[in-house]
Amino acid sequence: MANTKNILIGGITGGIGSALARRLHAAGHTIAGFARDEAKLSELSSELGDFDYSLCDATDSAAVESSVSELHEKLGTIEAYVHAIGSIYLKPAHLTADEDWANTINLNLNSAFYALRSVMKRMQKQPEGGSFLFYSTAAAQTGIANHEAIAAAKGGIEAMVRSAASTYSGRGVRVNAIAPSLTDTPLSKPIVGSEQALEISKKMHPLGTIGEANDVASLSEWMISDAAKFVTGQVYVMDGGLSKIVPKPKM
User: Fold this and answer.
1) Does pTM top 0.90 for this prediction?
2) Is the dihedral of CA 226, 230, 234, 240 positive or negative?
């Protein structure tokens, strides 16, 4: 990145959030973050030189507003916000209970909106604007069995990104998303931890493997950088070809 920034990461202790935090810290940026596990926040902060953080339940709009307000005051400005918060829920619609549906929407879509609203109140007032980055899923790009709830939640994020990018473009604020397929993170351990499930997942991807957290973090770093200053309202799919190509049959 050409210029160092003040960057706030929601879900900074997760697989992708922490991978991104490490990359940004190494590049000299000032980072801050919030998450719901205080022990993980303290551990990561110590690793990266004691960055400012806040304990926060991202599904609680008042808690998000409080954390954003606190961290904005400490940073002075928020030049980029990354929302690395979400879940993986894989069940067909007829087996999805009301509670599981509500939790999936709450943790993925509601939390994203709460963060967008709170950070945007502040970012839009900055002379040079800033940028937002959210995460969707390749399952919002193409039909994948048993993904009805999570695809609906993440599809909502994509629609929100496009609308917000339009609303705030005149104020110098960019809003984008990345849509990964299965990525090897602690969140995906129930899948990647099973040899059979992992092999099935690899075969679904034309490149014959699944993504790693640092793959997504690398693209994320670029998307919030000045190198991507002409990119807004976009959803970049990062899925080893899963949603767009049919692999050549093996002979």
Assistant:
1) yes
2) negative
User: Which residues lie below 8 Å from residue 153, measured CB to CB, with a gap of 6+?
Assistant: 104, 105, 107, 108, 109
Predicted pLDDT of residue 251 = 67
Residue 92 lies in a domain: yes
Quick: pLDDT tens for 122-132: 999 999 999 99
Token readout for 37 is 């596990």
- Residues of the domain holding 20: 6-182+213-234
Q: Which of 75-84, 112-121, 211-220 has the least mean pLDDT? A: 211-220
